[in-house]
Amino acid sequence: MERNNLYPIFLKTSQLEVLIIGGGFVAEEKLHFLTKSSPDAKVIMVSPMFREATTELANAFNVTMITDVYHPKYLEGKHMVVATTDVPEVNIQVYNDCRAQSKLVNVADNPPLCDFYMGGIVTKGNVKVAISTNGKSPTTAKRLRQFFEEVIPEDIDQMVKNLNEYRKTIKGDFEEKVDQMNQITEKLVNKK
Ligand SMILES: C[C@@]1(CC(=O)O)c2cc3[nH]c(cc4nc(cc5[nH]c(cc(n2)[C@H]1CCC(=O)O)[C@@](C)(CC(=O)O)[C@@H]5CCC(=O)O)C(CC(=O)O)=C4CCC(=O)O)c(CCC(=O)O)c3CC(=O)O
Ligand SMILES: NC(=O)C1=CN([C@@H]2O[C@H](COP(=O)(O)OP(=O)(O)OC[C@H]3O[C@@H](n4cnc5c(N)ncnc54)[C@H](O)[C@@H]3O)[C@@H](O)[C@H]2O)C=CC1
């Protein structure tokens, strides 16, 4: 069986600079899911034309919009780049420029030109679940996201907070804390 070898990390996008190149439908979709998960993300967009809906979304999340065609100068200071233009040569240039500067790049909807994929994301308070199908089926990622949004209870955050509080009350060294935390949560995984 094939296996997903990607390594998920949870980025602090509020202290990273994300550049989206292009201002059309795909840009809007990527910005929508990015800001749904991370409303405080620092995002800059560069495009000669922004669709109305993209502009509205960008304004709602304080995204900086630069009306211009892509130029390598816009990569300066950016940590992550998402290329969404309808000009394949531009997307390829962005990919090559980013690779040359070791910046993480995603050419949306073009898996071979991605250092990382966007995933399906479920957020419930402090809990976040990210889903990937290894770039094989975005629709499956979407359906799983909808499924988990439904089945993970809203108050899962209360459990996280309670355990966080409880942990503070435990005396002893690290090993004892691990032991106690495992003991009180054992019922969650032990079906007997
Ligand atoms: C590889 C990846 C790269 C990347 O973009 O990061 C990629 C690639 C492609 N997307 C395509 C299309 C669609 N994308 C979606 C939706 C989402 N796509 C997302 C991620 C990813 N999309 C990355 C892999 C993620 C993984 O590993 O599973 C999600 C999860 C997150 C996000 O967008 O932020 C978001 C759902 C969010 C949510 O709902 O929670 C839908 C569904 C819909 O809109 O109903 C369709 C239409 C159905 C279809 O066509 O399959 C195509 C074909 C384009 C063409 O026709 O040529 C390609 C190219 C290809 O597969 O070759
Ligand atoms: N919309 C969709 O659901 C899908 C789109 N695609 C592909 O994704 C690409 C983008 O699609 P859409 O977002 O729908 O197109 P779009 O036409 O809505 O948006 C393209 C954007 O790229 C910008 N752009 C063009 N040249 C640029 C440059 N030199 N620098 C910066 N920005 C530039 C345009 O101004 C525009 O804002 C296309 O190649 C399309 O074939 C693929 C699958 C699905």
From the 3D structure, determine the CATH topology of the largest domain.
Rossmann fold
Strand residue content: 15-25%
How many independent structural domains?
A: 3
Query: What's the tally of helices?
Result: 6
N- to C-terminal separation? 31 Å
User: Helix coverage percent of residues?
Assistant: 40-55%
General form: elongated
Mean pLDDT across residues: 95
Main sheet record:
5 strands, parallel
CATH architecture of the largest domain: 3-Layer(aba) Sandwich
Structural class: alpha/beta
CATH H level, superfamily name of the largest domain: NAD(P)-binding Rossmann-like Domain
- What ligands does this structure carry? ligand SHN, 1,4-dihydronicotinamide adenine dinucleotide
User: Low-confidence parts, pLDDT < 50 over ≥5 residues?
Assistant: none
The total count of strands amounts to 7
Output the radius of gyration: 20 Å
N-to-C series of helices and strands: EHEHEEHEEEHHH
The largest beta-sheet arranges its strands as: 3-2-1-4-5
- Assign the CATH class of the largest domain: Alpha Beta
GO biological process, one term: siroheme biosynthetic process
EC number: 1.3.1.76
GO molecular function: ferrochelatase activity; precorrin-2 dehydrogenase activity
Domain Siroheme synthase central: 125-149
